[in-house]
Amino acid sequence: MVKVYEINGVRPVVHPTAYVHPSAVLIGDVIVGPRCYIGPLASLRGDFGRLILEEGANLQDTCVMHGFPGEDTVVEVDGHIGHGAVLHGCRIKRNAMVGMNAVVMDKAVVGEESIVAAMSFVKAGMVIPPRSMVMGTPAKIMRELTIDDVKWKSFGTRQYHELNVRSLETMREVEALTEVEPDRKGIAFDPSGMHKPKS
User: Which SUPFAM superfamilies does the entry mention (predicted)?
Assistant: First the structure.
């Protein structure tokens, strides 16, 4: 069961087509839209400002979302937030990506189809233009993204759309096996981006 907490009479909202891992924590003014994926141990603390994930966004393992009173922290449609990233009072525009362990601070805006490299620090108030690659501490705009860069990012996001469906349909808590079974099936990768059990 997902850990969802009301505070000051405000309760999180999770669309029925979204997947939220049971170890994630949602507090207060959190809105999770259709087809979103929230990974294990993610923390969404809507105890000051509102947190919004729009359709198809993903927030991966151990990510943190938080913000100040009166400020929204938003991941727009198909936003892709890598493992361990921290979002605080910022806006991640449509189809943008924040890499693993990156931090995006208050009133920063990551432009549409932009990529924030892993381990980068986007300082408060920085506005990143659309289709930009930013990296570093503090983050700097390095170049404009190519069509291939955007296709690569979009492919990864589609994999999380599919993971959302697989998780809703097949993930369940079980006891671990004590040994590897003969002819063990794995999760096969299909170049179309879809996963299926190996036969």
Answer: Trimeric LpxA-like enzymes (SSF51161)
